Amino acid sequence: MALLYLLNNWDANLWADAMRRQAPDLDVRVWPKETGRIEDITYAVAWLPPANVLKSLPNLKVIFSLGAGVDAILKDPTLPESVPIARVIDPDLTMRMSEYVVMNVLMHHRQQRRMEENQRNRIWDCFPTHAASALTVGIMGLGVMGTDSARKLSLMGFKVVGWSRTRKTIPGIECFAGAPEFDSFLKRTDILVCLLPHTPETTGIINRDVIAKLSRRGPLGGPVLINAGRGKQQVESDILAALDAGELHAASLDVFETEPLPQDSPFWNHPKVWVTPHAAADSDPDTISAYVLGQIRRHQKGLPVENIIDRERGY
Ligand code: NDP
Ligand code: OXD
Question: Among residues 87, 65, 186, which one has the least CA distance to residue 137?
């Protein structure tokens, strides 16, 4: 029984070492050099797995994603059909995402860029501000991350609305569901936060038509976009055009169509854009290893592994 780390874009040795510290009894291997006998491998931790590798493991029982999202695993066209895929649900990861969302909502609400510019230019400009309750934050995706962010923003006094595939009931949050209610949700929203998984349905969902449907009644001078879901959900040329046309007031983008963000991307020095490097909720090796180990221990005891994704839905 062995656990194989199959990670692209991550430091696999760092993650394997974190697991070895927590589980000295576990046979932990890093693909490709330490793969060894493929028959031994029962668990895999994967991110952007190269084609045919997971498929080649005859005794694989569970594939773990190192993140909340599983799109990087589902991209493998040779993914073995019968092996369940588990994703991370962890309070630390959720808290980090909520920090990012609350921080960015506050930066727009409190006009932080204007404050910083004024400081740089030694301007003492005590411009009028507004109450949190004057703004409606609309959260696309009311899953683990979206619901936690929604609750925290609501506690701070923001009006919060949310949109998901199936209907939710969350005290204090007005919830919209499915395609028929998407436009009503957008119409209410001053600050749009995207916390959706990347699936065929959510690809390109943040486009100029959607931006055009956002509320223009808020006190910021136009709607704001915050995307911490996935880059493929945003049409970047549409976001730039909407910013430049004044249809979008500002944007905080943590994810991009191409990552790392290319050096020549206009987002880097756009005056209305905040760029972060897919770091809204960083996966901590010790915390996430403890979570994966907990799930492996459950499996070893014959208990069901938690947080298995639905492949049909894609999340
Ligand atoms: P969940 O699976 O818990 O929630 C996903 C939510 O999106 C659900 O409410 C779901 O609706 C909704 N949804 C999915 N598809 C649609 C659709 N077509 N239309 C409307 N709603 C839809 O995921 P998490 O909250 O844990 O994570 C969300 C995403 O955040 C991840 O998939 C990942 O892409 C991103 N992420 C980004 C990170 C970063 O650092 N930038 C870090 C961690 C996550 P329903 O409830 O009805 O199923
Ligand atoms: C995740 C991520 O999905 O890191 O957890 O993006």
Answer: 186
